[in-house]
């Protein structure tokens, strides 16, 4: 068992008891937890398995880092499909506006873009990491890089330290686990926190890759690889034919299926039911109803009356998509436009309003933005992030069973829960 040696620190005009706190994981949640706990005068040691901090942050927002969403607490909660109310208290401790102020104080210039998405002015995610590193340096957090933790040590119902992978035991008065989820494991997030939590009696709910590209069974997808479609509308139907998701926006084709913003959002709505086949219907012309589109088709067919069918669609569709549409609507490519029947035109129109794909699965954790599922939040105190089973053991970030849509919400969850854990750990000293 750890022998507690209380040190005293002068903090402002107050003299406070100083404890030793270990933070496991140097991502968004861990850096906030460590910085905040150290700012309260505690001796904080952050253990990170990688040789640098914030490796995942570097790849966020396509390297630009969508830091947060410039929304009030209600706006943040609306974008959290799973356990939003668990986040109330953490957002009260640190909301998006406070996070933005904090980053500005740390020297990071920020800007707000479409959809209230907040980015660094430099468009460089590394500047966000630098700002968070400054937060830890200012507060004298002791960093231990290249140092994986293999176990959280508990005695008499309290967290008393950690065991490092190399075998060393490190005593502490409290531990904050911020090890992330399972997505993009190359960044260091390999699910270690779930093992730590289970070992001390916590339930981990079923885990799923979320905000993830989708696989489709149609072979023609690969011919469209790289094609990006803007201003389209998608509908996703479950195996019973019920529409479970629809959204307007942008998507792209990959060699195995589909990706892009609307597809990532769709994945969050169907992950529990996959791999049962879902139908994805793409409306290529959502601004026109069928009647309007038919009038438009007639106009184009008149314009290109003496051309081959395959050469008559360039005003309406991207070039790369035309051969696939011609194949799917079963009209010979070299048929003269002036001989296309009403029925054939109707087939083309139907396809343009609902290009069908069969979704059979996801691209998995290697390409998932977040992990859905995690440490059961019923067993975590939402106002402190402390385990309800083990005293002085806190959890923060993606390791918890909370996840959000794209738009900066997932990083805000990590920042707010990390900050809350750092603020509340050993607050009863
Ligand atoms: C490609 C991509 C783009 C994204 N873009 C955005 C975006 O623009 N905006 C947004 O809000 N969200 C985005 N996200 C999601 C967001 O990055 C995560 O939700 C967030 O980083 C989670 O933070 P975390 O601190 O909980 O976990 P992580 O960032 O995963 O950090 C966990 C850390 O713990 C370390 N660790 C793990 N196990 C151990 C151990 N045993 N010992 C020591 N250290 C350990 C890991 O190495 C890692 O550094 C994106 C995610 C991905 C993959």
Could you walk me through the main structural features you see in this protein, from its secondary elements to its overall organization?
The protein has 429 residues and is α+β, with helices and mostly antiparallel strands. 27% of the residues lie in helices and 24% in strands. It folds into 2 domains: 257 residues, FAD/NAD(P)-binding domain (3-Layer(bba) Sandwich); 151 residues, no CATH class. The chain has 11 helices and 21 strands. A 6-stranded antiparallel β-barrel has the order 14-17-16-15-18-19. Strands 8-4-3-12-21 form a 5-stranded parallel beta sheet, covered by helices on one side. A 3-stranded antiparallel beta sheet has the order 5-7-6. A hairpin with a 3-residue loop joins strand 6 and strand 7. Helix 1 runs parallel beside helix 5, helix 1 packs parallel to helix 11 and helix 8 crosses helix 10. The N terminus is likely disordered. The site of flavin-adenine dinucleotide has 38 residues, from helix 1 and helix 11.
What is the fold's blueprint, element by element?
Elements: E1 7-11, E2 14-18, E3 20-24, H1 28-39, E4 43-47, E5 68-69, H2 73-78, H3 88-93, H4 96-105, E6 110-113, E7 117-120, H5 125-138, E8 142-144, E9 149-155, E10 158-164, E11 169-171, E12 174-177, H6 192-199, E13 208-210, E14 214-216, E15 228-237, E16 243-253, E17 257-259, H7 261-270, E18 278-283, H8 290-303, H9 322-328, H10 342-353, E19 355-362, E20 370-372, E21 393-395, H11 409-424
Parallel strand pairs: 3-4, 3-12, 4-8, 12-21
Antiparallel strand pairs: 1-2, 5-7, 6-7, 9-10, 10-11, 13-20, 14-17, 14-19, 15-16, 15-18, 16-17, 18-19
Helix pairs in contact: 1-5, 1-11, 8-10
The structure holds flavin-adenine dinucleotide.
The site of flavin-adenine dinucleotide has 38 residues, from helix 1 and helix 11.
